[in-house]
Design brief:
Layout (H helix, E strand, L loop, with lengths): L2 E4 L4 E4 L3 E2 L15 H13 L4 E3 L8 H9 L9 E6 L10 H12 L4 E6 L6 H7 L2 H10 L3 E6 L6 H10 L3
Parallel strand pairs: 3-4, 4-5, 5-6, 6-7
Antiparallel strand pairs: 1-2
Helix pairs in contact: 1-2, 2-3
Length: 171
């Protein structure tokens, strides 16, 4: 496995991560994850040197975070950095952000999320990020010890848009 230093985390992160967006399911039901198979896949990746596991509040109707949490039992949590995402676009207002974070922590059954990402800041969603003061919220959650590092995922379609996002905060 190849790794790159991540100075802010004080560790090296594998170039290959494990994404838990499309875990194996039973009967074609997106929310019915084949837990034994998914846990085996995640642990096989970790045993092979992957040390970055990515999930999200909305993946598999929330079941992805639960299964990732189960996969990280038995000493696996100490081997990885966990990323999950704040799905503000499914919320009615900023007062729902901390309860969503708390639910992610509960589902993952961990004390802190290593990389908490603002999920899919593209198009008009970028306006919501600023209006809801998400950067301030994320900084507050860092101070509370609920998250360690702040990031984002972006599905924007232009270089100009991406540059605007990059320049808006010291990621």
């Amino acid at each position: 496995m190849k790794y790159r230093p991540f100075a802010a985390a004080g560790k090296e992160i594998s170039l290959l991560g494990f994404g838990a967006m499309r875990l194996p399911t039973i009967g074609g039901d997106h929310a019915n994850i084949d837990e034994p198979e998914a846990i085996k896949m995640i642990r096989t990746a970790i045993d092979g040197g992957v040390n970055y596991v990515d999930t999200a509040y909305v993946y598999h109707g929330g079941a992805s975070e639960v299964v990732v949490g189960k996969a990280l039992k038995d000493g696996y949590r100490e081997k990885v950095s966990v990323a999950t995402k704040l799905p503000f676009w499914v919320m009615k207002g900023p007062d729902e952000m901390e309860p969503a974070l708390d639910l992610s922590l509960e589902r993952l059954d961990i004390d802190a999320i290593d990389f908490y990402l603002v999920h899919d800041i593209s198009g008009d969603r970028w306006d919501t990020v600023r209006a809801w003061k998400m950067f301030e919220f994320m900084e507050e959650m860092k101070k509370k010890g609920k998250i360690r590092h702040i990031g984002f995922s972006c599905h924007g379609s232009t270089t100009e848009y991406f540059k605007e996002v990059l320049d808006a905060y010291p990621w």
